[in-house]
Structures are given as C-alpha cells and as structure tokens.
Amino acid sequence: MAHAHVPAHPDQPMQPAPSASAAPSAQPTPPAPPAHRDRPWRGIVVATTLPFREDLSVDHDAYAEQVARLIADGCDGVVPNGSLGEYQTLTDAERARVVRTAVEAAGDGARVMPGVSAYGSAEARRWADQAAEAGCGSVLLLPPNAYRADERSVRAHYAAVAGAGIPIVAYNNPYDTKVDLTPALLARLHAEGSIVAVKEFSGDVRRAYELAELAPELDLLIGADDVLLELALAGAVGWVAGYPNAFPRTCAALYRAAVAGDLTTALPLYRSLHPLFRWDSKTEFVQAIKLSMDLAGHTGGPTRPPRHPLVPEQEAVVRAATEKALAEGHA
User: Fold this and answer.
1) Cα–Cα–Cα angle for 259, 262, 265, nearest 5°?
2) Within 10 Å of residue 53's Cβ, how many Cβ atoms?
C-alpha cells in the first residue's frame, strides 16, 4: 500500500575545521528555562514521534533535531517513549538512549517527561529510576495494562514506581488499557502521594469538574488533541500533545490562547485544526501524525510493525487536511 513519507536524513557531512587564525564562532544561545520550572509537566509538552530510517533503525540524530526544533518553536517540553514514540517496539537499549537524546537536545532535563509504562511494576520502576538518573523532571505512567487491574493493584503499581522519587503524571487511557482512572481513584492516588497530575484521555470533559472538586491540587493535563479547547476552558494546566509534532508554532499559540480564555484567538485555530486533531484519538494516530510531519517538511517517516501504513483512503483524508492547514499558514 502506498505511503508517502520523507526518508530520514543521512548523517550530515563533517565540516572543515576552522583555521587557527579564524575567529571563534559564537556559542549557540541556550534555551530559556521552562515556563513552569517547579512543575515542568505543565504547559505544552509534546508526545514526540520517533524517526526511523528506511531499515527501521532509530535515527537518533533526527530525533535530537526534532526535540530541539519543538523547544525552539515554543513548546515547553517533550515526552519521549510514549505511544506516539512507539516505545513498545523499542529494545531496552534504544529506549534508554532515546531518553538521553531528548535530555541533551532539550537543553534541560526538566523539560523531559519520559513514558515509563511497562507490563510489570518493577520494570516501570527501573525506567523511572533511569529517567531520574538522566535528570528528567517527571515521568508519564499508565496503570497496569497487561490485564484489567483492580483498584488495589493500580494503587500498588503507582506507589511502587513513585519510590523512584521522580514526579509521576498518571495516564488515563481506558480504551487501550481497559483500566479507568476515575476522578475518585485519581484523587486517592494523589492523596497517597503517588501522582502529581493526570493526562486525561477519556474524552469525558465532565470529569474535569469532578476532579477539581475531589483533588483540587492535582494538575489536569489535556490528553487528547480533539478536546483541547474544552479541557483548557475547564481548568487544564497542560497539554500532552500530538499534533504539535507537525505544527508546533500554531499549536503553541492555540494552547496559550485557550488556557487564557482568549476565544477570539483560540476558536478559529481550533476549528481549523480539528480535522487533524481527531486523528490523535484514532487507532492510526501515529501514522497520521507522521504523515502530516512529512508534508510539513519535518521528519515523520515510517512506523515499525505491527503498525502498517495508512490505507489509501485514510492517507487521502490526512493529506487533504494537512495540505489545507499548510495553505492556511499553520506551522
């Protein structure tokens, strides 16, 4: 099946060394510190895709460029090794290196919130330990997802990983995990000191208000692009985002207008991008966002099996919506 993508770039050729008489080049300006230094999971934190070469090896150089570009274009941080990063297909060595690459490229480990989800609590704890050692500011953790875990198991899971001493953002995705982190359960996890925030992906905007009543100190993060505006208006203080991989500057402007209640700015942008944002909640979200990245001139590229390229009908829809967004000036 056809799938248009831009191959990951080859390694850049080495530049000749400057002569001894040449003036020293200016040092690059370091990125500004995160806007939410004490709570780095706040703001617009991009769940990054991961670029693969044609042989499906990880292109760490392209990934470093991607992280640096997102920070430079106004995003507050990145989430490596999330679902968009296809962490389930990575070897342990690849997964660890992706985190180190993100920290170095971001210029500040506080900006990096790795996904540390795993089938076993001990394995998730090891990934949290690795994130802490790398200097990350927080981690993102699904509940147990190898089976439909009961509340006691969920609480024990988060408590075990919290022992790493790094702030944990819970990830509520009842569709893929079959475990629903309800407002009552989230409030209990927060009261027990296991989590500091939740990436809310249920799509049920009503939960924002119940959660604010039960756990007012727990930070609500938007977990699905296609409910961005609704959750921002309901009090969300962050967005674990997908489509900023393709349109970082426009998405950053949209997010900041949304949380400020500036509907004059936010609503037209949201309407314009919503045909793409919907793909963030579809099974083919990784392929769709990577295709949009390719069309926007960034490195999206292929996905690893078992993910397959979009079928032609899906590709046509994503392509048309992306080209429309580009024609409207989104970047």
Assistant:
1) 115
2) 15
Taking only the tens place, the pLDDT of each residue in 30-46 is 455 556 778 999 999 99
- Name the pTM for this structure: 0.88
Separation CA 302–CA 146 (nearest Å)? 27
Residues in CB range of 242: below 8 A, 6 or more apart: 46, 47, 84, 225, 280, 285, 289
221: amino acid identity, one letter: L
pLDDT tens-digit map of 8-24: 333 333 333 333 333 33
Quick one: tokens of 2? Answer: 């056809």
**DSSP H helical ranges for 279-311:** 285-295
Which are the contacts of 323, defined by CB distance < 8 A and separation ≥ 6? 295
DSSP string, 188-251: HHHHTTS-SEEEE-S--TTHHHHHHHH-TTSEEEE-SGGGHHHHHHTT--EEEESGGGT-HHHH
Edge-first strand listing for the sheet containing 139-141: 77-79, 43-47, 238-241, 219-222, 197-200, 168-172, 139-141
* Omega within 30 of 0 (cis) for the link into 31: no
CA–CA dist 269, 325 (Å, integer): 10
